[in-house]
Amino acid sequence: MHELVTLQANLPEAARSPLVDSDGNGPRVYMRTYGCQMNVSDSQTIESMLADSGYRFCDSPEDADVVLVNTCMIRESAEVRALGQLANLSSLKKGNPGRVIGIMGCVAQAKRKEILDSHPYVDIVVGPDSYRRLPLLLEERFISPPGTPGLLETTLMREELYDDIVPRHHGGVTAFVTIIRGCDKFCSFCVVPRTRGRERSRPLPSILREIEHLVSQGVRDIMLLGQNVDSYRWQGRDFADCLLAVAELPGVVRVRYMTSHPTDISDKLLQVMGSHEKICPYLHLPVQSGNNRILSEMNRPYTRERYLDIISRARRYVPGLALSTDIIVGFPTESEHEFEDTVRLMEEVRYDTAFTFKYSERPLTKAAKLTDDIPEAVKVARLERLIDLQQRIAREQNEKQVGKLTEILIEGPAPKDDMMWSGRTPDFRPVVVPRNGECIGDLIKVRLDALVGFTFVASRQH
Ligand code: SF4
């Protein structure tokens, strides 16, 4: 066993904020998180730091002394949602002028000045590499006289990994574990390298320590996270080594990961996936477009042919592999004929899941210099076409599973029926099964008897 990292309960008293009263009660924090799993993981890291400093958490912004919003700007819609939330925060501030409002995440990083200039009720703006400073900034803000300009901390730090902090786990059998931060790929449509900085990998021993700690809290299913996990490198170890080391930890029942990049995914990784039963046969491999000219415009340095070759090798190494992807339609200059290449690729690969998006211009990106020349109605029509196609393919893929014997990991009671458990197959298909003395976290054998919508109804097998 590796030495466990310091747990919150054992924190030295010196780490407590001076805002904590003599009964040990610190200010109450309400946190809302937008965006991807990386943001969810970051929010758990922030919660851990604040809990260490004596802060408490609440479920309603009205009850909170501190309201924090962790924002995402990968798509325009996510940014609009986050900025819309800012407008609501103004009334919270009016209701209690002493309440501290903090904006974090990618929008905070990219639009820091604009946020402070146009939202004067915002007290703190913190970027993804500066969360360590948050407890100090909050202390400073609580004692600042009214009218003091908001505090800004958005330095990008190449060495920041939050490696010594155990993210606050919220219960359940699944946990996200960040293994690499930042991105060096600079896809022309993506703002992430500008908001989350350059790529850096966590030391493997600290990843394993965190997972051991999670296992001791009842976690069974580990999702390894990174903008591009395939470029993980630490002291000569690559992502395949990392994945295998995690799968071999006692108590870990399943390991999954996201996101992969077609340029970096290796045969070694696919071999490891296919050779270890704890590593789920599920691969999220964003293609973004099925047309080579558009891929080149997107700065995605692979071709449609190379991508399809990776898919066929992945299916060879990993029997029963489920596939998901990300696709953008309506990238600047995308012709109808080029869009049809994406449709054909989707038909050829037959993804189990696809996350499809209309192109939206993101500030600070290379693509933002291009004219966003595809009319909205065309983007919508292309998106609807892909969604319809994918729904048909997903239904057909699922129908092929009916009658199969498989294993599910029990995650909790089924949302609509307390007499059933809800769980997932190794390839991540949702299943409900009648309860029969099992516990959350058990791995049980089932037969997939029927499909209702996109959920399987199963029966227990012994
Ligand atoms: S690989 Fe491309 S899309 Fe993914 S985070 Fe990096 S720049 Fe963005």
Report on the architecture of this protein.
The chain has helices spanning 37-52, 76-95, 105-110, 112-118, 134-142, 192-196, 204-216, 239-247, 267-275, 292-297, 304-317, 336-349, 376-399, and strands at 28-33, 56-57, 66-71, 100-104, 124-126, 151-153, 174-178, 180-181, 200-201, 221-225, 233-234, 237-238, 254-258, 282-284, 322-329, 353-358, 405-414, 417-424, 430-434, 443-452, 455-460. By secondary structure, the chain is α/β, with parallel strands linked by helices. Among the domains are: 16-153, Methylthiotransferase, N-terminal domain (Rossmann fold, 3-Layer(aba) Sandwich); 169-280, Transcription Regulator spoIIAA (2-Layer Sandwich), CATH 3.30.750.210; 405-460, OB fold (Dihydrolipoamide Acetyltransferase, E2P). α12 (336-349) packs parallel to α13. α2 (76-95) links the parallel β3 and β4. Mean pLDDT is 92; it is low at 1-14.
Summarize the structure.
With 462 residues, the chain is an alpha/beta fold. The protein has 13 helices and 21 strands. Among the domains are: 16-153, Methylthiotransferase, N-terminal domain (Rossmann fold); 169-280, Transcription Regulator spoIIAA; 405-460, OB fold (Dihydrolipoamide Acetyltransferase, E2P).
* Spatial strand arrangement across the major sheet: 2-1-3-4-5-6
**Individual helix count:** 13
Bound molecules: iron/sulfur cluster
Global structural class: alpha/beta
**CATH homologous superfamily grouping of the domain at 16-153:** Methylthiotransferase, N-terminal domain
Radius of gyration: 23 Å
* Total strands: 21
Enumerate the spans where pLDDT stays under 50 for 5 or more consecutive residues: 1-14
Question: How far apart, in Å, are the first and last alpha carbons?
Answer: 33 Å
Give the fraction of residues assigned to helices: 25-40%
User: CATH class of the domain at 16-153, anyone?
Assistant: Alpha Beta
CATH architecture of the domain at 16-153: 3-Layer(aba) Sandwich
CATH topology of the domain at 16-153, which one?
Rossmann fold
Name the beta content range: 15-25%
Overall morphology: globular
The largest β sheet comes out as: 6 strands, parallel
| Mean residue pLDDT | 92
